[in-house]
Amino acid sequence: MSTAFEEVCPVADLPNNSRRCVLIPGSWRSVLLVHHRNVIYCMDQACYHHGGPLAAGDIEDMGGILSIRCPWHNYKISLEKGEGLYMGLEVGNMTTPVLKSKGVRQRTHPVKVENGMILVHDSSLDGGDSIASDAYAFETKGIPDLETKKDPDEIKLHSRML
């Protein structure tokens, strides 16, 4: 089990309400950093479903769980845990949808900030079972160049209160 954190970018390059794709230097894993509400999240940048560019997805509040919506097929993924989320019906209550989880589908990675730098630990190095997003973890094609977006307000942020 590896506990190494690696520098991926200066925190100044990721202002609040922004996101950025980076490579983890030691493993060359392609990840997405999301800085939202003063918390920095990190997950594999390509959606577990078909490798869609999560950096281009909307941030949504799904019943108190912050999630990102894949722009290709609208899959919703918890930023904190990487769970696939959806609205489903319960037996006995077929009229009001409730938030449900498909389980962890998107690999997330621990983040810390030290001396003005964002550090990420590649959680795949800890062993354990493979996660669906691992299939796309080293693909860098199709990553949007978000560095051209200088205004954090250009990133779409949505709230879906359920």
From TrEMBL:
<dbReference type="GO" id="GO:0046872">
    <property type="term" value="F:metal ion binding"/>
</dbReference>
<keyword id="KW-0411">Iron-sulfur</keyword>
<dbReference type="GO" id="GO:0051537">
    <property type="term" value="F:2 iron, 2 sulfur cluster binding"/>
</dbReference>
<feature type="domain" description="Rieske">
    <location>
        <begin position="6"/>
        <end position="120"/>
    </location>
</feature>
<protein>
    <recommendedName>
        <fullName>Rieske domain-containing protein</fullName>
    </recommendedName>
</protein>
<dbReference type="Pfam" id="PF22543">
    <property type="entry name" value="Rieske_4"/>
</dbReference>
<dbReference type="InterPro" id="IPR017941">
    <property type="entry name" value="Rieske_2Fe-2S"/>
</dbReference>
<keyword id="KW-0408">Iron</keyword>
<dbReference type="InterPro" id="IPR054716">
    <property type="entry name" value="Sol_Rieske_ferrdox_dom"/>
</dbReference>
<keyword id="KW-0479">Metal-binding</keyword>
<keyword id="KW-0001">2Fe-2S</keyword>
<dbReference type="InterPro" id="IPR036922">
    <property type="entry name" value="Rieske_2Fe-2S_sf"/>
</dbReference>
